[in-house]
Specification:
By secondary structure, the chain is of the alpha/beta class. The chain has helices at residues 19-34, 137-141, 172-184, 195-204, 221-230, 246-255, 267-277, 301-309, 311-323, 328-344, 348-361, 368-389; strands spanning 12-13, 54-61, 67-78, 81-86, 95-102, 105-121, 124-131, 164-168, 188-192, 209-213, 237-242, 259-263.
């Protein structure tokens, strides 16, 4: 008789705190939930605690292209999703595969999407995952094996688009996530943090499309759309927002917004919107290039150029320190330094990729294949930044 493999093997622990500390965090979360007013929980089905013998793994697909399997501590489960503790940040809308085992016996394997990521303490985050298809949570809790979910329709092919995009959002994590997605599409994009920044940038520079968060400061996106349209700007404007009401959507569409998407949104819907308004790159056409957020600061340009020209050497040195096992600490420090300097010079995609690399470098044993995959991703971003200068 062949026994199933141990589900904890070849899996990185997603929690670097003791079981007692995990129990305390879960207890605090339960007390916090009990303190809420009745009727404030809008979940479609009751959340239920998991038996202690169940093993939970997630395979996280990061926006930078890397994948890593983590063993996590689940908080509760329902027919539509699972809440868990994880020792790292996961981007909203990221794709994960949830695996649940009874000891070593697989019970469930289902695709899901990150709909919540809240920092708690000690690098621990509370993660909410929504299943792509509903399950029978009672059967899982009774350790009954679930039938494999029906195949979900294949994801659409990510096109290569061309054009300049202005992305307006005051929330750093959302900017980092969508920035990665825009870079995947090959788009040249700039960030603005407020209504006033967006108005100044849109009137002083050419943009083929604008994406904006609904809740801006000091005025909401409705004001931004009105000002841009009254100023004679006609580019498509896509508005994103949490819990966009029908009234808010109607109002902003009347002001001239092209489309509205509620967060967390399906990235495929955004791709379709962008592809409808931006031209696809010709076969063999080079991507627009990764442009620094600070490029319009003419006094800063010489420093940006110097940074990009030296970026390849920086990555070569980082690769060398990674290959030398005696310098693992140096490699980790160099990756963190790369993340910090990339942010300083206005390259969020490089910052995020370097953050992911530093996370991988902190594991023992090192996930070698994933580390070199992330190095390749960084080298691609460096070439893209260089092409924007050529």
């Amino acid at each position: 008789m062949t026994h199933p493999a141990n589900p904890r093997q070849s899996v990185v622990s997603g929690l670097r705190i003791s079981g007692a500390e995990q129990d305390q965090i879960l207890s605090d979360l339960d007390n916090e939930q009990h303190g809420k007013m009745p009727g404030t929980d809008r979940r479609a089905s009751v959340r239920k605690p998991l038996p202690p013998q169940l093993v939970i793994n997630i395979v996280a697909h990061h926006p930078g292209g890397s994948q890593l399997k983590f063993h996590v501590r689940a908080r509760n489960l329902n027919d539509h999703g699972i809440a868990l503790l994880h020792g790292g940040f996961l981007h909203l809308n990221s794709v994960c595969i949830v695996e649940i085992f009874d000891g070593s016996m697989p019970l469930l394997k289902i695709p899901s999407t990150v709909v919540r990521c809240r920092y708690l303490r000690h690098s621990i985050h509370e993660i909410g995952l929504k299943f792509d298809q509903a399950i029978n949570a009672d059967d899982v809790l009774k350790c009954k094996k679930q039938e494999a979910p029906k195949p979900v329709q294949a994801k659409i092919k990510i096109p290569r688009l061309t054009g300049r995009v202005l992305y307006v959002d005051p929330i750093e994590t959302d900017r980092r996530y969508l920035g990665y997605r825009l870079a995947q599409l090959g788009l040249n994009f700039r960030n603005a943090l407020s209504t006033q920044d967006a108005i100044e940038m849109a009137t002083a520079n050419h943009f083929d499309l604008i994406i904006t968060e609904y809740r801006l400061r000091p005025d909401p996106a409705t004001f931004l759309v009105r000002r841009l349209r009254n100023g004679g700007l006609s580019m498509p404007i896509i508005v994103l927002g949490n819990d966009l009401s029908r009234a808010a959507t109607t109002e902003i569409r009347k002001e001239g917004a092209t489309a509205c998407l509620a967060k967390p949104f399906d990235f495929e819907k955004l791709i379709k919107l962008l592809a409808a308004h931006l031209p696809e790159a010709e076969p063999g056409q080079a991507p627009s290039g990764l442009v620094s957020q600070h490029w319009e600061d003419h006094g800063f340009r010489p420093l940006i150029i110097e940074y990009v020209n030296d970026l390849t050497n920086t990555l070569d040195y980082l690769s060398e320190t990674i290959m030398q096992t005696a310098t693992e600490a140096d490699a980790l420090n160099n990756a963190k330094q790369l993340a910090a300097t990339a942010g300083l010079y206005g390259y969020p995609p490089i910052t995020e990729a370097a953050h992911e690399l530093s996370t991988l470098l902190s594991f023992d044993p090192l996930p070698t294949d994933m580390i070199y995959e992330q190095l390749t991703n960084l080298q691609t971003l460096a070439k893209s930044a260089q092409s924007a200068l050529d």
